[in-house]
Design goal:
With 167 residues, this protein is an alpha+beta fold. It has three helices and seven strands, in the order H-E-E-H-E-E-E-E-E-H. The chain has one domain. Strands 1, 2, 3, 4, 5, 6 and 7 form a seven-stranded antiparallel sheet that branches. Helix 2 runs antiparallel to helix 3. It starts with a helix and ends with a helix.
Length: 167
């Protein structure tokens, strides 16, 4: 049983490597094939009770990176952008698009307090999901990869860490 699992994992890894070999050269060092990951930014203590400031810092960071907002749910601490096709522009029949999601991890505020308190922000969770597609002249799909942009994820992480994280 263990041997079968090991063989299956090896075949899966080999398939991923072969598929990754087809990724366009400008994306080879930045795009990771697989499920998008979440990075966490712990919010420093002096900003945890400043929900409004944290929210605005995240919005500003996203907009500064040339993304447009698709969904914002301030009450639940969730932001998602539209798909941006301008992060890396590929030639020919290749398309690359990236989307950012941010989720605030909070401790509930006290609505009975006078004045009512907003949630305290403990950390931010950031995800940068991406897709690469190669379509033929007739519009048929030749290659498709889903994953995440590790360069953009790291840049956003560093920007938000500098603004909201520990010093």
């Amino acid at each position: 049983m263990k041997t079968r699992i090991a063989v299956a994992l090896m075949l899966l890894l080999t398939a991923c490597i072969l598929f990754a070999a087809d990724i366009p050269k400008p994306l080879k060092t930045r795009f990771v094939v697989g499920d998008p990951v979440w990075r966490e930014v712990p919010v420093r203590a002096d900003l945890q009770n400043q929900y409004e400031k944290c929210w605005q810092a995240v919005l500003d960071t996203i907009l500064d990176n040339h993304f447009d907002l698709a969904t914002t749910d301030k009450e639940n601490g969730y932001i998602r952008t539209t798909e941006n096709e301008g992060v890396v522009v590929l030639g020919g029949s290749w398309d690359y698009k990236v989307q950012i999601s941010v989720k605030f991890t909070t401790v509930p505020g006290d609505p009975k307090a006078n004045p009512p308190t907003l949630p305290a922000v403990q950390k931010l969770r950031i995800q940068v999901a991406g897709e690469i597609a190669n379509t033929g002249r007739a519009g048929n799909l030749k290659a498709y990869f889903r994953g995440y942009d590790q360069v953009l994820l790291q840049n956003l992480f560093q920007d938000l860490q500098a603004k909201l994280g520990s010093r």
